[in-house]
Amino acid sequence: MKESMTEEEDYMSDSFINVQEDVRPGVPMLRQIREARRKEEKQQQANLRNRQKSVKEEERERRDIGLKNALGCENKGFALLQKMGYKSGQALGKSGDGIVEPIPLNVKTGKSGIGHESSLKRKAEERLGNYRRKIHMKNQNEAKAAEVFGCD
Q1: Which tens digits make up the pLDDT trace of 24-51?
Q2: Residue-wise DSSP of 4-60
Q3: Which residue ranges does the record annotate as region Disordered (predicted)?
């Protein structure tokens, strides 16, 4: 029995009661939280570096790189334009009053149809018109009620 007491300290002994620890509130916890956040940030950065890009991201990057570069002489369309007298930076057309910049490319990445955006816009305008009519009717009814109750 005595041997077990010497191996394990008694919870009522002075060694447990008089332990001098840092008793400032929150200091050790803050340090632990900071270290945990640093580890988490390092892990996220490592994940971002090692992450394989999705097909959509790769397509978008390649498209952006391709759109930033100007067309060269190896492009058939550009070569045909040059044969007809076109020079880079010149406006299109016989009199030179056409467009200078190419028509911008609008890539549709969603799964909705071509006219879906216009239908959403139309529906939003209808909802706004209905809301305005409702508010107008409410204001008219309040004015009539004030008129009726104000006269009596």
Answers
A1: 665 666 778 888 899 999 998 888 777 7
A2: HHHHS--TTSHHHHT------TTHHHHHHHHHHHHHHHHHHHHHHHHPPPPHHHHHH
A3: 1-65, 95-122
